[in-house]
Design brief:
The complex is a heterodimer of chains A (about 575) and B (about 400).
Chain A (H helix, E strand, L loop, with lengths): L18 H19 L2 H35 L7 H22 L7 H10 L7 H16 L7 H18 L4 H20 L2 H13 L4 H22 L18 H30 L9 H15 L8 H8 L5 H20 L7 H22 L7 H16 L3 H12 L5 H18 L4 H8 L7 H6 L5 H4 L10 H12 L6 E6 L2 E7 L14 E3 L9 H8 L4 E5 L7 E6 H11 L6
Helix pairs in contact in A: 2-5, 2-6, 2-7, 2-9, 3-5, 3-11, 4-6, 4-7, 5-6, 6-7, 7-8, 7-9, 8-9, 8-16, 10-13, 10-14, 10-15, 10-17, 10-18, 11-13, 12-14, 12-15, 13-14, 14-15, 15-16, 15-17, 16-17
Chain B lengths: L1 H59 L3 H14 L4 H13 L3 H14 L4 H13 L3 H12 L7 H18 L3 H14 L5 H13 L3 H14 L4 H14 L2 H14 L4 H16 L8 H25 L6 H16 L4 H6 L4 H19 L5 H16 L5
Helix pairs in contact in B: 1-2, 2-3, 3-4, 3-5, 4-5, 5-6, 5-7, 6-7, 7-8, 7-9, 8-9, 9-10, 9-11, 10-11, 11-12, 11-13, 12-13, 13-18, 14-15, 14-17, 15-17, 17-18
Classes of the chains: A mainly alpha (about 575), B mainly alpha (about 400).
Chain lengths: ~575, ~400
């Protein structure tokens, strides 16, 4: 290729690169540009939307699979034949047991706990086989009439998809750890058609704090999954809620009674699981092949008389919300569902507890409302209204997520009118449940499975120690600032001559001399660096971070920086922690 | 340095590959999910329609309980279907499970507050429980609400039921207002509805409007026996005995077994034949009727006092009859009355007095004596200035 070549005319253009080469070069240039524009945080947010879409699609397919299997196994009739009622859950139980033992051993247990394990133990790792396993085994189990719900598996399917995507995109370890809850929120939101409740649940039960880094991603994922789900399954809420009326505030007492009953039922269900699950797990290994089948058979026997307890039971909840049962029938349904759900769950059949909790709560609420109507004819709340409040009550008492339970009722009812009864009833149920069953459900299950996961409830209730709790002689007017400083230095055990306290326009600071003061010069005249400072309401954790290598720090008032509230030493912080007592790591 | 760059670059490249794969997978999943959900919804819709049709068949054959299960099943497959919900509520109401039916209907109402059919069903439930305020509210909402098919007939039906409900609960003022609106909107050819309106007007005592409605009904269907009987009885109550006799005669021919018609017809005929206060009577005829009435009253008094001799009032009745007999021989004779027509009223007053005393001792009269009571009623009304 030279200009001297006679074959090439002088006017001809220089030789062009091939199209592929041009494309490749441009692509590389653009990629670098995009890469510089998008940080990992941006990618994480974009990924949250992607996770939401995938989770939404998966949940749609999951729900359709359950319905289809239910149609196949139990048929379309309201009262299926006895043969179907007995055989469907039994045979499905055998199939599920085989799949769980031989193909998908990780699908056992709670999806919430597995998501928590991914966050706290497994660096965000949720095996994708769990997603497939949960999908298949739960669809068969719930579709055959086992008394379990699709929400917990949906949550785990979402978490598994998120984890898989995060690993494929080679996110940093910090982001990978946070990605499972993002997927969990998406899965749960699509299953419930309730994005707010899903976000709150994940924050309240999985993450345990309102971390800004992950909150945006969780919200994005939940919203996009719900949008996808509604695209395919319609915009209708999970339940059609009857109008709610509360004509007199004294009627709140009626809902308080529901709170007491709901709290009692929550404790009963929790203790049934706490007692029966370890008992069955202690049985020989070969019995695990038959436990889901036996549970299915027993549920079938219940289903002959009360077929409403089979499956997730959403239509039955809807009927209860529309006053379709008498109070004694509602009570029977609640009792049978408690037995059926306990059997299904403790037998190791994969599936969730959310739908059964809503079912039992609705039936119990309706029954309480029905009985109260017998005595007080003027109650304005219908039986359906009590069923609605009851759903939230058991959610608060059994799953121990008080905030989610309130918002869940508001979100599924689409109305704030029930807020007061829900708050009262849920709080009472939560307090009763906490009083009589110290360990919450998810912690209990984790411990039974041999995992020690952080208890979000305990974290929530742990008292935060603050600087004002550790400061010695805080606000003492008897001592001068230099005396307070000298005391603190003494407690810190560091040589005092290198440090001095000085006040200024910006407030009090401890200063560290960078050179020894010459004889006869005042401390402040020598070159020094000044310390940061603390406010009395800083947590001790923050205080430790701020102190770094400073032996003592001044505590100043937020209202008046010139006012020295005290001087805190490292030793004071350690003493405060010692005085607060130890925390059980489990 | 170079190796780090290379690692970052390869990570970036693999990310792009993953994102492209994700995009492809998403497109595929969207299509697959779309196809599956469409197929599933189609299956659900078919099942829902099947169960709904089964429910309708069960309900038509009177098996409301089975219909209820069928409708519920239909709603499981198509929970938002409003006609299914309405039918379920109707089945519940038929089974007497009013609270459950009401819950469904209220839910429907919150979605479609102006729906005539939903309001109508709620009104019926309220009517069953006797809740007048709710019933009136829902019936009115039904009357002024939107109906999908034949709204005029549906609105008339709603107003008719409201009127019937108000009449049953003796809310006559409210009922009259509703009935007037109803009557104004009944098509001329609807004899049955005119007859029903006539019956209701008659129940609340608005006899003139009742008569008009029966007349409308007879105009549309002259063979309508109910309207004919109604018209005859209302005419009788209004004192139009000639009209009453005309209608009742036709009714009696069509249904000779109807005792009320037969008795009222007989009384009407007696009234026509014996009423001395009828207009356009000759003086002789009037005197003749007064004299006959007095004679009949005396005869009843004689029979009554001899049959009830132990009754302490029997003697005073006999005395009254004796006084009348004395006058009957002189000025209250037929000739005397013809000569002195001013004595007609006095003679009739005596006849009424005797009849009333006889009634007190021997009970309610029949036949001619019953006619005498009616004549007295008419006479008193005339005295008070009412037109004849």
């Amino acid at each position: 290729m030279t200009n001297a070549s006679p074959a090439v005319p002088a006017s001809a253009a220089p030789p062009k690169d091939s199209l592929w080469l041009v494309f490749n070069r441009r692509f590389a240039t653009n990629r670098r540009r995009w890469a510089s524009m998008f940080s990992e945080d941006h990618l994480f947010l974009m990924l949250a939307v992607l996770i939401g879409i995938f989770a939404g699609l998966s949940v749609v397919l999951f729900r359709i699979s359950i319905e289809w299997i239910q149609l196949l196994l139990l048929g379309p009739a309201v009262h299926p034949s006895v043969a179907r009622v007995l055989l469907a859950p039994t045979i499905a139980g055998l199939v599920v047991a085989l799949l769980v033992i031989h193909v998908f051993p990780r699908v056992r247990g709670s999806g919430v706990n597995q998501t928590k394990a991914a966050v706290y133990v497994l660096d965000g790792y949720v095996p994708f086989s769990t997603v497939i396993g949960k999908f298949i085994t739960c669809a068969i189990a719930i579709g055959s009439g086992q008394s379990l719900g699709p929400e917990d598996p949906s949550l785990q399917i979402g978490a598994g998809i998120a984890s898989r995507l995060g690993r494929s995109l080679k996110l940093s370890r910090e982001k990978i750890r946070l990605i499972a809850p993002v997927g969990a929120a998406a899965g749960l939101a699509a299953a419930f058609n309730a994005p707010i409740s899903a976000v709150l649940f994940v924050i309240e039960e999985v993450i345990g704090n309102w971390s800004g880094g992950v909150l945006g991603a969780i919200v994005l994922a939940a919203v996009s999954s719900v949008v996808v789900m509604r695209q395919f399954l319609g915009t209708n809420a999970l339940f059609r809620i009857p109008p709610f009326r509360l004509e007199h505030t004294s009627e709140l007492l009626a809902y308080a009674v529901l709170g007491v009953v709901g709290g009692g039922a929550s404790v009963l269900l929790l203790q049934a699981i706490a007692f029966m699950r370890p008992l069955l797990r202690r049985l020989p290994h070969w019995t695990e092949y038959f436990q889901p089948a036996i549970a299915g058979l027993l549920i079938g026997f219940i289903g002959i008389r009360v077929p409403q307890v089979m499956g997730a039971g959403y239509p039955i909840i809807d009927w209860a919300l529309h006053d379709q049962f008498t109070w004694n029938m509602l009570l029977l349904l609640a009792a049978c569902k408690i037995v059926a759900t306990s059997l299904s769950f403790v037998s190791g059949t994969p599936g969730g507890m959310f739908a059964p909790t809503l079912f039992i709560g609705a039936m119990l609420g309706g029954a309480v409302g029905g009985v109260e109507h017998l005595f007080y004819h003027n109650l304005s709340g219908s039986v359906g209204a009590f069923a609605l409040v009851g759903m939230g009550t058991l959610f608060a008492g059994f799953l121990r997520v008080p905030i989610t339970s309130v918002f869940m009722v508001i979100e599924v009812s689409g109305s704030y009118s029930a807020i007061l009864p829900v708050m009262i009833s849920n709080t009472i149920a939560y307090l009763i449940s906490r009083q009589f069953q110290k360990t919450p459900l998810f912690d209990l299950l984790a411990r039974q499975d041999g995992m020690v996961l952080p208890s979000i409830e305990e974290q929530r209730e742990r008292i935060t120690l603050r600087v004002e709790d550790a400061a010695q002689n805080r606000g003492s007017t008897a001592q001068r600032p230099d005396e307070i400083f000298a005391d603190a230095m003494r407690r810190s055990g560091v040589a005092a001559e290198l440090y001095f306290l000085a006040g200024g326009a910006a407030g009090w600071r401890v200063h560290r001399r960078l050179a020894k003061p010459a004889d006869g010069t005042e401390g402040s005249a020598a070159p020094s660096e000044s310390s940061p400072f603390l406010y009395p309401d800083h947590s001790l954790e923050e205080a430790l971070q701020i102190m770094r290598d400073w032996p003592v720090l001044p505590i100043i008032s937020r209202a008046n920086p010139q006012l020295l509230e005290g001087v805190i030493a490292h030793a004071d912080i350690l003493k405060a922690y010692r005085d607060a007592g130890s925390i059980d790591p489990s | 340095m170079n190796s780090t760059k290379h690692r970052n670059s390869s990570a970036g490249q693999s990310r792009e590959v993953v994102l492209v794969i994700c995009a492809v997978l998403l497109v595929f999943l969207f299509f697959a999910t779309g196809i599956l959900t469409r197929a599933f919804h189609k299956k659900e819709d078919a099942l829902a329609a099947q169960w709904f049709a089964k429910g309708n068949t069960s309900l038509a054959s009177g098996a409301a309980r089975e219909a209820l299960d069928d409708y519920r099943r239909a709603l499981i497959f198509d929970p938002e279907n409003e006609p299914y919900q309405l039918h379920l509520a109707q089945a519940l109401a038929q089974l007497g499970r009013q609270d459950e039916a009401r819950a469904y209907l209220l839910n429907l109402l919150s979605d479609r507050p102006g729906d005539g059919e939903v309001n109508f069903e709620l009104a019926r439930l309220a009517a069953q429980t006797g809740d007048i305020n709710d019933a009136v509210r829902f019936y009115h909402a039904a009357v002024y609400g939107a109906w999908e098919s034949d709204p005029v007939a549906a609105q008339l039906r709603a107003r008719l039921e409201l009127s019937q409900f108000l009449v049953r609960h003796r809310e006559n003022t409210l009922a009259e207002a509703e009935l007037i609106s109803l009557a104004a909107n009944i098509p001329d050819r609807d004899a049955e509805l005119h007859t029903l309106a006539g019956d209701l007007f008659q129940s609340i005592g608005d006899l003139h409007r009742a008569f008009n409605e029966y007349r409308f009904a007879l105009k549309a269907a002259p063979d309508n026996l109910t309207a004919r009987v109604g018209a005859g009885l209302v005419s009788f109550k209004l004192g139009s005995y000639i009209k009453a006799a005309e209608d009742l005669e036709l009714a009696n021919k069509a249904d000779p077994e109807n005792k009320t018609v037969a008795t009222t017809l007989e009384t009407s005929r007696l009234m026509i034949a014996s009423d001395p206060f009828s207009a356009q009577l000759s003086a002789r005829e009037r005197a003749n009727r007064v004299s006959a009435a007095l004679a009949h009253a005396i005869q009843r008094a004689d029979q009554c006092s001899s049959a009830s001799a132990k009754n302490p009032n029997a003697s005073s009745l006999a005395e009254l009859a004796a006084q009348a007999k004395m006058q009957q021989r002189s000025i209250w004779s037929e000739r005397g009355l013809l000569l002195r027509p001013d004595q007609n009223d006095a003679a009739m007053e005596m006849a009424f007095k005797i009849e009333n005393a006889s009634t007190q001792i021997c009970g309610e009269p029949a036949g001619e004596d019953a006619a005498m009571r009616l004549i007295e009623k008419k006479y008193r009304a005339m005295q008070e200035g009412a037109p004849e």
